């Protein structure tokens, strides 16, 4: 994919769909691809992020795939999801999806991330039906679903846009500036691979950890400059650790080491583009 990838009063969380027990109680071992083992405790103030999943339920093959209800492309409509919390770590990720007019008073959080490799794909439940998503997004949802502040609806391109519908994709791309600028905040998901560096930086403020973070593939993508600029509030999530993006930029300014040149380039793009403020001119084809 080359197009965009991927707080005030909260929305009331949409009532969960009737529980139909669509998940077979079969367990499979979750591979620790980082080699770093399970997160032992929360590292972010009073906030809590779900621990690494060791076992997962398997979704019944008989459950039908999710079918999108078509958006009215003559209007400015978007879909938002409500991510359900889990009663146990192995529970299948599930969410409810709804369609809204952008003119409504919407309270939602947007996600900025990289899609990552096409394989492997993981299954989640959307309105009780199966949807395949890529691993990086799956990791985010698994982390975020039991976060105490998961009280707002989410906009995530991979779920909220019908990827098989070219006309809809093009329609939604034209709304990207609106989606990010009108969000309550944007979560910048750097994935699981940067978790250790984020924890070390949060505790010790070592510039070497900033270098490790800025080498994340997220910061090599040009579109993130637009998403960062347009978002009114931004927080970075790496594994189970939250970071402040402006704090990372301040570290760049106060340290002259060549090891932060990559993040410095991102920061310079961010600050120079911030003077333009013309949202329509920021879209990249």
Automatic annotation (TrEMBL):
Q: Which domain of life is it from?
A: Eukaryota
Cited InterPro entries: HET, HetReg/Transcr_Mod
Q: Which residues form a coiled coil?
A: none
Q: Which Pfam families match?
A: HET
Show where the Heterokaryon incompatibility domain sits. Answer: 108-203
Q: What is this protein called?
A: Heterokaryon incompatibility domain-containing protein
């Amino acid at each position: 994919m080359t197009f965009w990838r991927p707080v005030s009063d909260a929305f009331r969380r949409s009532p969960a769909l009737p529980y139909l027990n669509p998940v077979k109680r079969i367990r499979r071992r979750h591979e620790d691809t980082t080699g770093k083992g399970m997160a032992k405790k929360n590292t972010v103030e009073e906030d809590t992020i779900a621990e690494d999943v060791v076992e997962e339920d398997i979704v019944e093959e008989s459950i039908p795939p999710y079918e999108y209800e078509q958006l009215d492309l003559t209007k400015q409509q978007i879909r938002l999801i409500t991510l359900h919390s889990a009663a146990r770590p192995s529970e299948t990720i599930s969410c409810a999806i709804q369609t809204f007019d952008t003119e409504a008073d919407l309270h939602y959080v947007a996600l900025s991330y990289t899609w990552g490799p096409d394989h492997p794909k993981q299954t989640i439940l959307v309105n009780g039906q199966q949807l395949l998503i890529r691993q990086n997004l799956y990791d985010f949802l698994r982390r975020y679903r039991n976060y105490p502040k998961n009280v707002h609806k989410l906009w995530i391109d991979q779920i909220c846009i019908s990827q098989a519908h070219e006309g809809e994709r093009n329609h939604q791309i034209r709304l990207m500036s609106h989606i990010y600028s009108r969000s309550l905040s944007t979560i910048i998901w750097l994935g699981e691979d940067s978790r250790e560096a984020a924890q070390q930086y949060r505790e010790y403020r070592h510039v070497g950890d900033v270098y490790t973070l800025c080498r994340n593939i997220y910061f090599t993508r040009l579109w993130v400059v637009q998403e960062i600029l347009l978002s009114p509030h931004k927080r970075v999530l790496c594994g189970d650790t939250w970071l402040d993006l402006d704090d990372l930029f301040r570290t760049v300014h106060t340290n002259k080491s060549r090891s932060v040149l990559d993040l410095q380039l991102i920061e310079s793009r961010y600050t120079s583009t911030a003077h333009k403020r013309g949202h329509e001119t920021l879209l990249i084809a």
